[in-house]
Amino acid sequence: MGKTLFDKVWDAHVVRKVEDGPDVFFIDRHFIHEVTSPVAFVGLKNRGIGVMYPEKTFATADHNTPTWNQHLPVADPLSAKQLEALANNAAEYGISHWGLGHEDNGIVHIVGPENGITLPGATIVCGDSHTSTHGAFGAIAFGIGTSEVEMVLSTQCIMQPKPKKMRININGKLGFGVTPKDVALYIISQQTTSGATGYFVEYAGEVFENMSMEGRMTVCNLSIEMGARGGMIAPDETTFEYIKGRRMAPKGADWDKALAYWKTLKTDDDAVFDAEYTYDAADIEPMITYGTNPGMGIGVTQCIPTADQVEGGKETYKKSLGYMKFNEGDDMLGKPVDFVFLGSCTNGRIEDFRAFCSIVEGRQKADNITAWLVPGSHKVVDQIKAEGLDKILTEAGFVLREPGCSACLAMNDDKVPAGKLAVSTSNRNFEGRQGPGSRTLLASPLVAAATAVEGVVTDPRVLINA
Amino acid sequence: MAYDKFEVLTSTAIPLPIENVDTDQIIPARFLKATERVGFGENFFRDWRYDAEGNPIADFPLNDPKYAGSKILVGGKNFGSGSSREHAAWSVYDYGLRCVISSFFADIFRNNCLNVGVLPVQVSAEFAQKLFDAIEADPKTEIKVDLPNQTVTLVATGESESFDINGYKKGNMLNGFDDIDYLQNMKEEIRAFEAKQEIY
């Protein structure tokens, strides 16, 4: 029987199979950040053990960093202490560190790919569930807990049972104004927030083959939101073209050797998946969420389902709508919005800023909207400026902030106040995710832009036509 | 030894019959700023336990004196979804709980629990409902979680169901060992494996 892409990469990294237990799984690339790594380093010290392969771990500061005046000392003492711990631990153990202000600094899942650290066929982990982003390159990438961060630091391995395999196929062509974010939110709405729990997902079909690397990253990023440990897409010419020449990617003879191997990384025709789903691209429209988990999403022109129309517990559903202050049957279009957030590891790349600008160019930010536009890295900032997008944004009344995770999880000052409604290009709409009492609608950069200029939830297709 | 051994636990239980409880609720992101593992129990379910002024929300089960001292939490389906923050599992442990029972767990949370000494027990939806009903009828209902025999039992009626856990993890929980202890003993094998890697 043939192997899936996932099997090929997984099996190449099993150091030992534990009887009636997990696999000892070797990790090629390990990212760490300031929030989930300090306790792991304390663990190393308490046990009196060191870092086995410091050159395989990469540290960047992103989760709690300010997105304004980064040249000044970090005001919040607890955040400052975490950032200092990351810097000190990296220095002590010889780990490369891209701290605040460093030219390579940015959100961990954005700086990895843009520096050529993320490669096809690699195993990549980080103490962050959106590590699934890197699966866009045909890597096995997933989030881990802090105990596992300590394991990787000390032994370059973790102990994992091999997940089951799922394939999601989408064929056909995406409609006008439909972005990779909408594809992902659509899949999650079909799978629910737990439908892919226990699985590793391969995305296949025309829609993904025609998607850019950045789009693929957005889709794989959101795999965790349907419960999957991760998602991956077979590497192809689009992948190789993206990686070639990046600073830390293989060069010369190493490149040729790697490329020959990467071309073998695809699912065999006779491979079998534990579950398989097929969707039609024509069924996907610009999406928006209305509830308190990412599975609660609908087309932006639709109205909120009634409790009778959804699977699962009615009480939980009503609690969720109650938190959102929405009613069953409400239209999403036209709902007044207070905040718009463009950014995060989901939608903080250059294509996302281009998409946002395509809508706001020649228009003005609505007065009732507070907008936070947060590029994913300094390199994204540089590209925004090189393309003149910053001027478009300024003329439309927007201000560009400095890189970081920002309002996606609101560990810094970018908090949506209690009761306020935000359209956010990030990945989670959980209660209080963007600040205590905040209410979040997840959507694409196009929907966010259309909402930012109209002040209410808006279908971007109306503005593109106009 | 990373945590206290787990063998047989008999305790009353806190019911939380809400589905899709995510780790942002179990421990909100603003409480992830510690550089050491201390104090997470205080902020366990912070925003469901306390209102914006810091007053306890009376009808939230964790604030209900009927359940004081419980070592078990019975949660709704898809418990622990979302963020990989191990702080969520730490907050369960630090609050004083050793076991979470649900009809379905999110993957990373389940893994994290096993790594920090909290036993995740997955039961059928029917048995989970039976537990919720029994606790509602009598908050002092005792539940016995027997790890060696892999069973969970309603003490009063003897109704019981078995649960799965792989032999390796079971051994760890019974002995209070963790994966790091295991991995430390195979460094030579790991070194030999790494030496064969050509591309990465």
Features:
heterodimer, A: 466 residues, alpha/beta, Aconitase, domain 3, 2 domains, 5-stranded parallel sheet, 4-stranded parallel sheet, 18 strands, globular, B: 200 residues, Aconitase, domain 4, 4-stranded antiparallel sheet, 8 strands, 32% helix
- Stretches of chain A where pLDDT is under 50 for at least 5 consecutive residues are none
Low-confidence stretches of chain B: none
Please identify which CATH superfamily of chain B we are dealing with.
Aconitase, domain 4
Mean pLDDT of chain A: 97
CATH architecture of chain B: Alpha-Beta Barrel
Number of helices of chain B: 8
- Profile the largest sheet of chain B: 4 strands, antiparallel
Here the CATH topology of the largest domain in chain A equals Aconitase, domain 3
Instruction: Tell me what the CATH architecture of the largest domain in chain A is.
Output: 2-Layer Sandwich
Instruction: Tell me the number of helical segments of chain A per DSSP (H or I, 4 or more residues long).
Output: 17
Beta-strand residue percentage of chain A = 15-25%
How many domains comprise the coordinates of chain B?
1
User: What overall form of chain B do the CA principal axes indicate?
Assistant: globular
The sequence of SSEs of chain B as H and E is EEHHEHEHEHEEEHHH
Strand order of the largest sheet of chain A: 5-4-3-6-7
- Mean pLDDT, all residues of chain B: 96
Broad shape of chain A: globular
What is the SS-derived class of chain A? alpha/beta
CATH superfamily of the largest domain in chain A: Aconitase, domain 3
